[in-house]
């Protein structure tokens, strides 16, 4: 930068007295572009203009002192400037991602079967299958009075929920998404609202786009309300009437901010819209879809650099932060980062009603309380206490884990996220919750493939819900209905066997035969005196026994398999081909029946997420995709050793050996895929995001395909190359390590 330094300025948004400082940071790069000078706006936590001006002057002095910019000079800076200024400047320079699981562990320890009698059970299931409703039954919360955790006929659970059933007081710890994640999603919402304004969509549609992110994980209307433009299209059928919703003054101020934001959005759209379309000379392009994509992307690029755009984001972020003011938070202790963003909220009480009411503020989806809920900002909720159902004789020792439903998007889920793969690895039981009226659709099949190919099939328990809705003239009794449901499962397992090999099918059939329950009327309080209630209570009791019965697997016998490296090459080749065949159509670089090209905004958002350190965007999961393809092809390889070192084992013993190798290999493949697709290709992801101008959508897709995917997973060929050899050697190395861990051989 030479002698040119960035300078700071003050800002105060509409209706707020608190001042904020804005500056370009000389030591922080924009993660999506790789360019220095990240724009930073941070509250100074003061409403005194003279004090704020002093802080601004101190920041300018720090910005003019490059000898103080390195982390090692932090203590020296503290001797010269106010701690608030130092904390703001050095925020994120101290490195490291926040370990939210560790934060929750530090408040409420998660019992393990290794050190206690507790069992950890993870719920998996499609949206609407009833996994959270089943969770309610197992933790004994009243479906009508308490309604915790929240349920809905639509998408509800988008954060991790962890429930520990134990004696003692009711305790809670809540962790929140980082400020940068929230701000980035909010930028995408504002950008979508600008485009809606240019298209002359209605005010209600513009407000909806401003407040609800396209993938619906960040629904800011929960936090801010639906705005001054009334729209009743949002959903909810769940609530808790005990929460105090008297925040009229706050909502009025928020509505004023949102009204101004809508005016600004329209002005931004008008300022850039027509001039941009003329400048791009779109009339020369024959393909209307290309014209629209080109225009939309350039509009997005230019508006994001516009100060008015940033001011809209700033104003809405201020409203979000206001929800964490002491006056609007339930009882409890709020821990914040050094720059004031919420990190954790903790509370302990012996009052169950008060506990449910308070925790619902962080987990509810009750529409009348929109504008006061913090649910979209939460990435994890852990609670413990005497949450016990009334129907069992003994109090179960359980840790129950719930999360986002499989298929929380219109597209069928075919790949399990890397986060979910890690959670599967840390639990004792996986309860696959499936709707008995439409069993075994794409998402449950993907979950079963993940479990069996990662060596975790022994953890699987099938829970078929909505069993009361299964009906037909040929289904006169529960036994006939159960066989009807199982027939659908049998067909799916045969197809899985054709894809992943006979031991995959064998393992899943064994679990389906011994570990299944059929559940009815879970959304109601169980009446154990009625015939149906007694049957469901009995099935729930079986479920508890199944969870408790999952113990450490027996050690493999002395015989060990021997594998041929040549077969490994074929497995890697097929995995790499499948990976590319799945992604090229999504990038728009080829055509494949049944697969659609992803919208340019999703591909751009994917490149932005990778540039920021994530490994997925919504259902776009290249790391998980590569890991899945390698894992499944190698699982087939594991079932076909060329010989055995010792007498050939029984099928049961073979299953134990294959699962032991596959379980360890799954962890190693996740690390390999993350390194090759993510960490080693970071600059290429940034280059892909930076693409702009005519045909940038095509160039971005081509860059991702050729400089990321082709190098991360080159298809082995008769013609060797350094990239292909390195990929094969990487996969061979992790496979050998997993094989040798159980005493097997890869030669």
Secondary-structure map:
Blueprint: E1 9-11, E2 20-29, E3 36-43, H1 49-63, H2 74-78, H3 83-90, H4 100-107, E4 119-125, H5 131-139, E5 160-165, E6 170-176, H6 179-198, H7 203-211, H8 221-224, H9 248-279, H10 288-304, H11 307-322, E7 333-336, E8 342-349, H12 352-360, E9 378-385, E10 398-402, H13 418-426, E11 429-435, H14 442-453, E12 460-465, H15 478-500, H16 502-514, E13 516-518, H17 531-549, E14 560-563, H18 565-587, H19 600-611, H20 622-638, E15 643-645, H21 651-677, H22 682-690, H23 696-712, H24 722-741, E16 745-746
Parallel strand pairs: 4-10, 4-11, 5-9, 11-12, 12-13, 14-16
Antiparallel strand pairs: 1-2, 2-3, 5-10, 6-8, 6-9, 7-8, 14-15
Overview of the molecule:
- By secondary structure, this protein is α/β, with parallel strands linked by helices.
- It folds into four domains: 9-90, no CATH class; 120-160 and 386-549, Rossmann fold (3-Layer(aba) Sandwich); 168-384, no CATH class; 560-746, no CATH class.
- It contains 24 helices and 16 strands.
- It has helices spanning 49-63, 74-78, 83-90, 100-107, 131-139, 179-198, 203-211, 221-224, 248-279, 288-304, 307-322, 352-360, 418-426, 442-453, 478-500, 502-514, 531-549, 565-587, 600-611, 622-638, 651-677, 682-690, 696-712, 722-741; strands spanning 9-11, 20-29, 36-43, 119-125, 160-165, 170-176, 333-336, 342-349, 378-385, 398-402, 429-435, 460-465, 516-518, 560-563, 643-645, 745-746.
- The strands form three sheets. It has a ten-stranded mixed beta sheet with strand order 7-8-6-9-5-10-4-11-12-13, sandwiched between helices.
- α6 packs across α9 (248-279), α9 crosses α10 and α19 packs across α22 (682-690).
- The model is unreliable at 231-245 and 408-413 (pLDDT under 50).
- InterPro entries: P-loop_NTPase.
């Amino acid at each position: 930068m030479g002698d040119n330094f960035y300078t700071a300025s003050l800002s105060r948004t509409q209706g707020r007295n608190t001042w904020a400082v804005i500056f370009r940071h000389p030591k922080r790069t924009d993660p999506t572009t790789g360019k220095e000078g990240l724009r930073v706006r941070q509250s100074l936590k003061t409403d005194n203009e003279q004090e704020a001006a002093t802080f601004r002057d101190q920041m300018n002095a720090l910005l003019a002192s490059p000898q103080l910019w390195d982390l090692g000079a932090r203590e020296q800076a503290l001797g010269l400037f106010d701690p608030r200024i130092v904390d703001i400047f050095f925020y994120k320079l101290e490195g490291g991602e926040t370990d939210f699981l560790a934060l929750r562990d530090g408040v409420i320890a998660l019992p393990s079967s290794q050190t206690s009698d507790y069992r950890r059970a993870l719920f998996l299931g499609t949206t609407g299958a009833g996994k959270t409703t089943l969770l309610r039954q197992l933790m004994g919360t009243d479906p009508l009075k308490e309604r915790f955790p929240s349920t809905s006929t639509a998408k509800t659970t988008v954060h991790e929920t962890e429930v520990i059933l134990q004696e003692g007081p009711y305790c809670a710890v809540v962790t929140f998404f980082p400020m940068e994640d929230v701000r980035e999603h909010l930028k995408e919402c504002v950008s979508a609202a600008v485009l809606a304004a240019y298209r002359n969509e209605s005010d209600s549609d513009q407000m909806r786009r401003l407040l609800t992110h396209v993938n619906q994980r960040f629904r800011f209307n929960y936090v801010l309300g639906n705005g001054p433009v009334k729209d009743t299209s949002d959903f909810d059928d769940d609530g808790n009437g005990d929460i105090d919703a008297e925040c009229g003054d706050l909502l009025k101020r928020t509505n004023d901010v949102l009204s101004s934001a809508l005016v600004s959005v329209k002005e931004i759209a008008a300022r850039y819209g027509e001039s941009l379309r003329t400048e791009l000379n779109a009339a020369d392009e024959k393909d209307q879809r290309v014209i629209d994509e080109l225009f939309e992307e350039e509009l997005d690029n230019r508006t994001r650099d516009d100060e008015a755009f940033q001011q809209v984001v700033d104003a809405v972020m201020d409203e979000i932060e206001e929800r964490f003011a002491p006056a609007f938070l339930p009882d409890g202790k709020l821990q914040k980062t050094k720059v004031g963003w919420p990190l954790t909220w903790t509370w302990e009480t012996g009052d169950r009603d008060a506990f449910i009411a308070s925790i619902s503020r962080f987990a509810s989806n009750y529409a009348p309380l929109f504008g006061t809920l913090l649910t979209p900002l939460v990435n994890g909720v852990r609670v413990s206490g005497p949450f016990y159902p009334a129907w069992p004789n003994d109090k179960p020792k359980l840790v129950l884990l719930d999360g986002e439903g499989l298929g929380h998007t219109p597209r069928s889920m075919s790949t399990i996220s890397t986060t979910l793969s890690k959670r599967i690895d840390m639990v004792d039981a996986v309860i696959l919750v499936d709707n008995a009226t439409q069993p075994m659709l794409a998402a449950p099949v993907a979950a079963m493939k993940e479990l069996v190919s990662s060596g975790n099939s022994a953890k699987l328990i099938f829970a078929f819900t909505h069993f009361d809705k299964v009906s037909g003239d040929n289904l006169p009794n529960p036994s006939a209905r159960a066989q009807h449901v199982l027939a659908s499962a049998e067909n799916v397992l045969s197809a899985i066997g054709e894809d992943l090999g006979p031991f995959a099918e064998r393992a899943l059939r064994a679990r389906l035969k011994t570990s299944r329950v059929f559940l009815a009327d879970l959304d109601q309080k169980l009446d154990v005196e009625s015939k149906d209630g007694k049957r469901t209570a009995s099935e729930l009791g079986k479920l508890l026994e199944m969870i408790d019965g999952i113990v450490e697997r027996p050690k493999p016998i002395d015989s060990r398999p021997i594998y041929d490296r040549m077969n490994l090459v074929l497995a890697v080749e097929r995995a790499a081909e499948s990976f590319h065949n799945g992604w090229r159509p999504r990038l728009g670089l080829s055509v494949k029946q049944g697969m659609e090209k992803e919208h340019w905004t999703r591909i751009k958002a994917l490149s932005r997420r990778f540039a920021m350190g994530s490994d997925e965007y919504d259902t776009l999961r290249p790391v998980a995709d590569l890991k899945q393809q390698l894992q499944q092809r190698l699982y087939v390889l594991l079932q076909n050793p060329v010989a055995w070192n010792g007498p050939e084992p029984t099928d049961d013993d073979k299953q134990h050996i294959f699962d032991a190798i596959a379980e360890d290999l799954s962890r190693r493949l996740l690390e390999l895929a993350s390194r090759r697709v993510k960490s080693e290709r970071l600059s290429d992801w940034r280059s892909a995001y930076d693409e702009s101008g005519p045909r940038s959508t095509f160039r971005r897709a081509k860059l991702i395909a050729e400089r990321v995917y082709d190098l991360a997973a080159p298809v082995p060929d008769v013609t060797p190359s350094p990239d292909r050899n390195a990929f094969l050697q990487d996969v061979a190395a992790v496979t050998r390590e997993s094989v040798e861990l159980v005493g097997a051989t890869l030669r």
